[in-house]
Write a structure and sequence with these properties.
Blueprint (H helix, E strand, L loop, with lengths): L3 H14 L20 H20 L10 H5 L23 H18 L6 H30 L28 E4 L2 E5 L15 E5 L2 E4 L5 H9 L11 H10 L7 E3 L5 E5 L2 E4 L11 H10 L7 H8 L6 E2 L23 E2 L2 E7 L25 E4 L16 E3 L8 E2 L3 E3 L1
Parallel strand pairs: 8-9, 10-13
Antiparallel strand pairs: 1-4, 2-3, 4-14, 5-6, 6-7, 10-11, 11-12
Helix pairs in contact: 1-5, 2-4, 2-5
């Protein structure tokens, strides 16, 4: 049981590390209904351990504040009522110091619990809670980016001087190469004893036709070509709902792009406004934009099954949050037909809707609400991003968002039939 303690301590301390130097105001404000305040992330991840581990498996545990269940429950209807998501930014109280005290209270109790033998179900619940916290670490950073992008001062979360190489334009543009795959009947989904979320199973067979996958994601430089060719003004390139978004939201470029008086483009980053890293993977695009670009390029988006089969040929290596760059980076791979940047840099949109695998059954109880009830109206992304923890990722990992969302580090990789 002691083996869980190092991971618990490391992951919980990392979340606090990401808010060091930020004020109570920075962590209370909510920039949009789809985003959450940093203080809420700190408290919600703590409530998860209190609600689903300590109250379930430690009879001696005393709740820190009974009101916090209403304030920091996210979407678990079986647990009870909760603060409306769009109104999380109104929680000026509890203070940041009180939320941090809440974390210490729960951490002390959880670590005391782990000093004894606990049931397998408890171990599994703690492991789920740690991966849940890693998800919120990524959301915390992307929500802070969205918040700071609304501020006319364009503040930086971390000083740009620490990431000069991350914003580099890179060497000469890498010509697009393709990796070929034979297709056939393949097994999809997680197998083995390691952790996975429930929606990564059951493992099942899928028939794939022969296909090719681009050896790298689409870059900022290539996206500029799409824009210059009128990509945002040609309805023939867009799905109907996507074209509606272009019109109603006045999309003319990816999220966070701003054009200077001289015509050059900059983008808001966790380091403030920066020049476009032209040869890095383009980020902050919606599914509809990714689909339109693929159509303009004469290609398509890969299915999530094509992506997963290809990713199994790659090590889970890349530009993750541990690199300390916090932004997509240009590839330094050799110009050959090997796949690069499958993991890290940007989440890659796929053509696959987020639906249950054959035979999927949600867990009994509130924990069963974790993924299953979101299986409509969303699309699958794969691979992780520059703010994803490396230990959180694997080829079978399925992320999912609504097709209009752009505030995450989301990009695309092209595919075509062979």
């Amino acid at each position: 049981m002691q083996s869980l303690l190092p991971s618990y301590r490391s992951i919980r301390s990392t979340t606090v590390q990401w808010v060091e130097g930020l004020s109570d105001a920075d962590l209370t404000a909510q920039s949009a209904e789809f985003a959450s305040p940093g203080k809420w992330h700190l408290a919600h991840t703590t409530w998860f351990f209190e609600q689903f581990v300590l109250q379930a498996f430690d009879a001696s545990y005393r709740v820190f504040d009974p009101r916090f269940c209403f304030l920091f429950n996210s979407y678990y209807n079986a647990v009870g009522p909760r603060q409306a998501r769009a109104q999380r930014g109104l929680l000026t109280r509890p203070s940041l110091s009180n939320v941090l005290a809440y974390r210490q209270h729960v951490d002390s109790a959880l670590q005391a619990l782990l000093s004894h033998t606990v049931p397998d179900e408890c171990q599994e619940r703690i492991t789920l809670g740690l991966h849940h916290e890693q998800q919120h670490q990524e959301l915390l950073l992307t929500d802070l980016l969205h918040l700071f992008a609304q501020n006319p001062l364009r503040p930086a979360w971390r000083a740009p001087a620490t990431v000069t190489s991350a914003m580099s334009h890179g060497a000469a543009p890498q010509a697009l190469q393709w990796a070929s795959f034979q297709g056939g009947v393949v097994d999809i989904g997680h197998a083995g004893d390691g952790f996975c979320f429930d929606h990564e199973q059951p493992r099942h067979s899928v028939l794939l036709r022969p296909y090719r996958l681009a050896c790298r994601p689409v870059t900022y430089r290539e996206w500029l070509s799409f824009m210059q060719a009128g990509g945002y003004s040609d309805p023939a390139l867009w799905l109907s709902d996507g074209w509606d978004q272009v019109q109603t939201q006045c999309w003319q470029a990816p999220l966070y792009w701003e054009q200077a008086d001289d015509g050059s483009w900059q983008t808001m980053t966790l380091h403030g406004m920066q020049p476009l890293p032209l040869d890095a993977p383009v980020a902050h695009i919606s599914f509809f934009e990714a689909d339109a670009y693929a159509r303009w390029a004469g290609k398509r988006l890969p299915t999530e099954f094509e992506w997963e089969v290809a990713a199994r040929t790659c090590a889970v290596e890349g530009n993750f949050v541990e690199s300390g760059h916090f932004a997509p980076r240009a590839s330094d791979n050799a110009k050959d037909e090997s796949l690069g940047q499958m993991f890290g840099d940007v989440w890659e949109w796929t053509a696959s809707p987020f639906v249950a695998y054959p035979g999927f059954r949600a867990a009994v109880g509130a924990v069963g609400e974790y993924n299953g009830k979101f299986m409509n109206g969303q699309y699958v992304l794969r691979g992780g991003s520059c703010v994803s923890p490396r230990s959180h990722l694997r080829p079978e990992y399925r992320n999912f968002f609504q097709p209009t969302q752009r505030w995450q580090f989301t990009g695309l990789r092209l595919a075509e039939d062979a």
